[in-house]
Every structure is written in C-alpha cells, then in structure tokens.
Amino acid sequence: MLPEILVHSIPSPSEGTWYLGPLPIRGYALSIIAGIVAAIWIGERRWQARGGRAGDVSDLAIWAVPFGLVGGRLYHVLTDWELYFGEGRNPVTALYIWRGGLGIWGAIALGALGVVIGARLRHIKLLPMLDAIAPGVLVAQALGRWGNWFNQELFGRPTDLPWALEIDPAHRPDAYPDVATYHPTFLYEFLWCLAAFAVIVWLDRRYRLGYGRVAALYVMLYTLGRVWIENLRVDEVQLVDVGGLRFNVWTSIVLFVAAAAFFAWSQARHPGREETVYTREPDADDEPAPRSSTPETSEG
User: Is residue 141 domain-resident?
Assistant: First the structure.
C-alpha cells in the first residue's frame, strides 16, 4: 500500500496571475521579488558580521537589481531571439518580462557590474562585499525558480517518477503533446541552491574565507548543479548542441573552471580574511557595525 500512496505528481498552478481589481499580481514576479528581498536580508546580516555598515547592501541593491534584471532579460532574448524576432513574431514582446525569461548568466554579470559601481561610490572593497552577498544570491535563485512553476516553463524530460510535474497541454513541448508529466527541474534547482547555500555558509564559518573565495564557491557549486539540471531540460534554445552539449552547459563548465582557478590563486596569495572592508575609513558619524565575537551565530 505504501508505494501506491507515495506515487503521485506535482500539480502545476491553474493560474499564474491573479487580479487585485485592475492590478495583475503575477506569481513569476512575486517569486523574483521574494528572492531579491531574501538576498538583501541575508547579505546585510553577513556584511555587518564582517564589519560593514548597516544599509550598505541595500544601497548597492539599488544598482545591482535593475542591472541584473536588464542583464537577465538581454541574455534570454539573445539566446532565444527567434521567440521575439523570428517569422510571425512581435519584437515588442521582448519587453514583456512578466511572461518569464531571465537568463541567470546575464543577470549575474550585469548585477555584478551594478555592485562594482555601487561599491566604488561608497568606498567599499569589492571582494568582501561579493563574499557577503553571494550566499544570499543562491537563495534568491532558489525562490526565483518557483516563477517557472507558475509559468509552466523550463521543465525537464518526460518522467513517471512520484514527484513528476504535471504540465497542461498548452505548455507541453511539440515533441511530447500527449505526455502529461515531466521532471520538475525548477524544484531540483531550488533544492540544489538551498543545499549549496548551507554548504557555503558552513565553510565560511569554519574557515573564515575571504578575498573572493566565498563568491568563487558560489559559482563552482551553482554551475556544478546546473550542468546536470540543464541536461534534463527539453525546452528549445537557439544556442544549443555545441559539441553535443547545450550552450548553458558549456557556460557552466567554463565558469566552474574559472572559479576554481580563482579560488586556488586567492587561497595561495591571500590566505585568511580581509581586516577591513572599506577602501578608506568611514566618517566618524558612520562607523561600521561592531564585529561579532561568535561568527558561528552572527552570519546568515
């Protein structure tokens, strides 16, 4: 009886948009917003535990969030350009970000540029800031993946596993019009990102990582999981099958190698953690938050 009870599937939401009067409330947008809020909250806690001022992460988010959204959309449109500029398509829909479509690589790249700009303006050292915010970005990515669930997109190959995801006929791939259940890759990435977050925070507390090594671990662990998750997906992308691998798999491999090389170089050149997180001393009325004497309980 137990196996029969456990055999089930994950339903997809019948609606991804609700209306508060004339105002549409979209599940995709709520997922992204929840991720941004979580990343800022975690980043603030970790930054203050390193000796930074309260509010620095929120100030940098003013730059990072819009840059990241633009970068994520640009990457998606460039890699899936036929969805918007192919025959019979409407290019204006490339601006409809609420329908889904944010490429993580573009979001991270331009989001990081926003952090660089904000950090320079506030005289913040870049590497300790990246180390402080990187784990929270994993949580943001985990929460953001639920937007794919609301939109019934970016799922994996057909499967009849107990945790298979039900997909409505309108959202099924052309190759599988009569197949109802698929791998819930959004859930796999959600769980992977949370597990990677826990591992990175533990390693940071245990070894007091600095000089960009937390950020490097973030890239390494995320791309490691992305390789196997990406190979489960059946959605069509324009840059696909490069040497038998999807373009995003190659991107993950290159970034993993680069991050691993940086981690080794940083460990050899700068063991330990930075003593100061600013490029100049803060003003007297704007001193950094005091460091906690118990880092095991102070960092988020």
Answer: yes
